[in-house]
Amino acid sequence: MRCAVGCGQHQRGVDRGYGVDKVRGNYDHPATNGLACERGIRETENPAGEWLTEPLVRRGNTLRPASWETALGVVAAEFIGTIAEDPDNLAVLGSGQQTNEAAYALGKLARGGIGTTYFDANTTLCMASAVTAYYDAFGSDAPPPTYDDIPEAETHLVWGANPAAAHPVLYRWILDSAADGRLVVVDPVKSETAADADTFVQVEPGTDLELARAVLARLVETDRVDREFVDANTDGYEALVDSLPPVDAAAETAGVDVETVEEIAAAFESPTLLYWGMGVNQSTHGTDAARMLINCCLATGNMGPGSGPFSLTGQANSMGVRVCSSKGTFPGQRPFTDEDARAEMAETWDVPLSRLPASTGPGPVGIVDEINRGHIDAVWTVATNPVAGMPDATNVARALDDVFLVVQDAFRSETVEHADVVLPAATWGETEGTTMNMERRVSRVTAVSDVVDNVRTDLDIIAAVGNRIESGLFEAPPVDPEGVFDEIRELTAGTVADCSGISYDRLDRELAVRWPAPDGTSEGGYRYYDEGSWSFPTDSGRAQLSTASYDGVPEPTDATYPLVLTTGRRPDAYNTGVRTREETGDVPSARIHPETAGQYVHLLDRGRTIVESRRAAVTVDLAPDDSVPTGAIWMDVHHPVVNELTLSAVDPDSNEPNFKQCAVRLSSPDTSSTVTRSGLPHTGTTD
Predict the structure, then answer these.
(1) Of the ranges 1-5, 206-210, 395-399, 429-433, which one carries the lowest mean pLDDT score?
(2) Residue 364: enclosing H or E segment and its boundaries?
């Protein structure tokens, strides 16, 4: 599986040597029944990135090959010395590309073996706002609907997402269902998904919250609220109504008219699935916007089979990291403030209770801020590429140059170039474990190929480092993934994310099982719903409606920076693109409306110009495209230099960054180089 749809795949290893030879969809897999997308097949069979095949240790300005014993010895010595001064001097960043077992082990080491507050994952960069909104509304993370609900819906409302590009298998189900119903798309850019829509709403970048509030206000004023459902199953309705703005004022802020707001409101009159993605989440108002979308479903009674709020997850195992890794909660979604949970974690891990941090930490952007304040001396990244994937990437690169940096990955990335030690890890097709897709299905991941001698699995690398820091924290490598999963199962028993009834044996028989699954025969369906009755794991047992206010985008345009930059996914790229791009030095494309491009013809040199923000300047190929609104520029979030432009402001509730809106301008290109970047030291290459 490459993304969070969780496609079941048959993989075949090569006859000689190592590697994956052929991949196809598994028709018996209950999540996708044999469907698979071209990108997922291609990235598994023949990824374009540069593989890491041996440990590397920096000598002067150059990364040089080293033995595992040497590399692990350097890492352990630095980490032990750092922890001895203060566990919070070491930060750890995980990834939604890890298996559940590796993610759990990394969290066990970070929280229990080290005791650092500064442990997080790149899933916070994409899903934290939706997660926070789910907790606030329902008392638990993860969408209530499942894939089974897609054919049952009559209206499909896609807001700030482009599943045609990002989740093509899931999008096929949406299109099939919408053929007998309706597809409504809300997006600043007329995306591939919007091109198929019955109704397309072009919202102003960064104003999703205000548009959602306008829709709610319209539903209230036209008496289309399901008061029977609201009164029986929710709290906070009157406060919500009192907080709503006038429809016309909110519509104007969002760049639409009242008639357009009415079109969206009308979508909720029939059973509606409301999908949203990074366009909503990656904003300083991301959590509030997600809360308002959930409010729309609750207020109209669009809950239950064939309807409801369905956030679209990006990375293959974002859900598993959230459930298993002790990133934002202890396994099973148990809060860090739960004293019983803390005691059980300390006992299970056999570590002092006092070592467990009291806070989940400030998120990845906050960790970079702490580095810049001199509070963190060492950083360990696992299966993530913050130098390309985080906002204000030049600042991230400079920060990582100021610490002892360990990079654990399967492919060479921009972050590798700043590392002091590189630990080469196995990838899909080479490792064993489990993952969870966006509808809560747990699936097995099996190895069909050996790895080269100097590459190890994430789980074995984490255990090797962990046992040097805290003797006996893990089995001696090679670690049995099934034993680790059994530990996860036990820790989730009785929780809202109960996986205790899911075993490797059961997965071998059934291939995938949705949680909650408290015994060996049960499987989760639509959440919080049982034969017409509702029960939510909140203090009152009822869903919670939220209020919010809109205070504008964090970086408005002005006379100096008059254009808006927004970012998105290309159909053929994923994550930071290390598996898909042939070259790291190519020039990114910037899509711009022809009318806007015409205003800057004097700044073009053979189709190239420079996009500048207050943080960086990047040379681009300008691509006129009338699907982009006037006054805006769209760029590929996967390109390694695009996030040099983006803004590091975060949502105050979720710590998720504002990737989707910042102010930029065009300027005359420097034809002597393809990319204009601040000079960065400490970026040697392997001899």
Answers:
(1) 1-5
(2) helix 363-372
Q: Please return the burial class of 604, using the count of CB atoms within 10 Å of its CB with bins 0-12, 13-18 and 19+.
A: middle
| DSSP conformation letters of 497-521 | T--TT--HHHHHHHSEEESP--SSS
Q: pLDDT of 1-12, one tens digit each?
A: 568 888 888 778
> What are 585-624's pLDDT values in tens digits?
589 999 999 999 999 999 999 899 999 999 999 999 999 9
* 548 within 8 A of 476, measured Cβ to Cβ: no
Distance CA 114, CA 546 (A): 37
What integer is the mean pLDDT of 553-572?
93
Residue type, 452: V
Only one residue has tokens 């009559």, namely 154
* Statement: residue 582 has pLDDT above 80: no
> 208-221 and 247-254 are packed helices; what angle lies between their axes, rounded to 10 degrees?
150
Residue type, 473: L
CA distance 94 to 124: 10
Tell me the pTM.
0.95
Here the tokens at position 55 are: 């440990």
d(CA 569, CA 549): 29
Please state, in angstroms and rounded to a whole number, the distance separating the CA atoms of residues 273 and 303. 9
- What single-letter amino acid sits at 120? D
CB 665 within 8 A of CB 612: yes
Cα–Cα distance, 64 to 632 (Å, whole number): 44
Q: Is 276 a residue whose pLDDT tops 50?
A: yes
**Is the bond leading into 516 cis (omega within 30 degrees of zero)?**
yes
Torsion of CA 450, 451, 452, 455, to 10 degrees: -150
Check: CB of residue 234 under 8 Å from CB of residue 542.
yes
599 Cβ neighbours under 8 A, 6+ residues apart: none
pLDDT at 204: 96
Quote the CA–CA distance of 258 and 249 in Å, as a whole number: 9
Provide φ and ψ at 349, rounded to 5°.
-85, -10
User: Which residues 6+ apart lie within 8 Å of 414 measured at CB?
Assistant: 385, 387, 388, 397, 576, 584, 640
CB 282 within 8 A of CB 126: yes
At residue 148, the pLDDT reads 97
Q: Are 411 and 52 in contact (CB under 8 A)?
A: yes
Integer Cα distance of 78 and 405 in angstroms: 10
Is the bond leading into 478 cis (omega within 30 degrees of zero)? yes
| Paired tokens of 11 | 């993989």
End-to-end, the C-alpha distance of the chain in Å comes to 34
Closest CA to 282 of 664, 665, 646: 646
Give the CA dihedral 438, 444, 447, 451, nearest 10 degrees: 50
Strand, helix or coil for residue 636:
strand
Cα separation, 431 vs 98, in Å, equals 10
- The answer to whether 88 and 116 have CB atoms below 8 angstroms apart is yes
Contact call for residues 330 and 360 (beta carbons, < 8 A): no
